[in-house]
């Protein structure tokens, strides 16, 4: 998380008026007016800023930021050294870019990505809207800061993500009983909680990394727009409202309105994420979510599921589950099959 602290520090520094910066001393207090933390990081020929920051705790970095904000002037050399350190150690990594989306100066989560907060329209984003390039890597779980994942409900999958009844099924259906509690998957803020056509009673939560989760066909709503919720918090009770033939939870994951396959992200069998980080790969219509570290097999001429399962020591059932296919599915040459979770 030190990368996050440094990134926030850099964002704060660039808001300073350049006329307020001096290269050597604080004009109000001089060298003697600086805090001990700032003194320790003042750059000299023999100092090593990298090791100094590396050995600082998050609380000490916050004290550094607070100390600098109390000044009317900040040493330019200090800014330059921190910039160089952050660039060499953090800015080139995907996870740094993703972490910045967890924290946003707006009261609304990920407002820098969306630019709006609509409490009426479920998917108010234009089809041509693209995700920012900086979101090629998305961090889902930050256990160090208690940002965890919880299954909305524990149940059997009754309908997967993908083409169904002549149209795309943009989520998954999980069996439940009426009145079963439905839980928030991640920390976030409720954007929508209302009755909405085919979805019935539905809740949409926007999370701090830009992801939105949708929970439909509820019997009762337990939250309202603007509520801040934690992972695992009860947001509604299961039911069969809206266009539903029986009680179940319709669960979606979307990023800027574009649906992601929850089965590529969450293991229903184990009730947890495959990985705390996913990579987003653009396809023709949307984005494919790939858990970080997952291995793939490229289908070659003559390949079939039994041969692939033996090659990698993965059961055919697991191959089908990981890739959303059936045992009798035709394997197209060149297709990438996921062979690990």
Rounded mean pLDDT score: 76
Gap between N and C termini: 26 Å
Uncertain runs are 10-50, 89-103
The main β sheet shows up as: 10 strands, antiparallel
- How do the helices and strands follow one another from N- to C-terminus? HHHHHHHEEEEEEEEEEEEEEEEEEHHE
Number of helices: 9
Strand residue percentage = 15-25%
Count every beta strand, where a strand is a DSSP E run of 2 or more residues.
Answer: 19
Helix-strand makeup class:
alpha+beta
Overall form: globular
**Level of helix content?**
10-25%
Radius of gyration, in angstroms, nearest whole number = 24 Å
Record keyword descriptors for this entry.
single chain, 341 residues, alpha+beta, ten-stranded antiparallel sheet, three-stranded antiparallel sheet, 9 helices, 19 strands, 23% helix
Description of the molecule:
The protein starts with a helix and ends with a strand. It has helices at residues 2-13, 36-41, 49-54, 58-69, 76-91, 94-100, 111-114, 305-312, 316-323, and strands spanning 137-139, 157-159, 162-164, 167-169, 172-175, 181-183, 188-195, 201-207, 211-221, 228-229, 234-238, 248-255, 258-260, 266-267, 272-273, 277-282, 287-291, 296-298, 336-338. A hairpin with a 2-residue loop joins β3 and β4 (167-169). By secondary structure, the chain is α+β, with helices and mostly antiparallel strands. 28% of the residues are buried. α1 packs parallel to α4 (58-69) and α1 packs across α5. It is 23% helix and 25% strand.
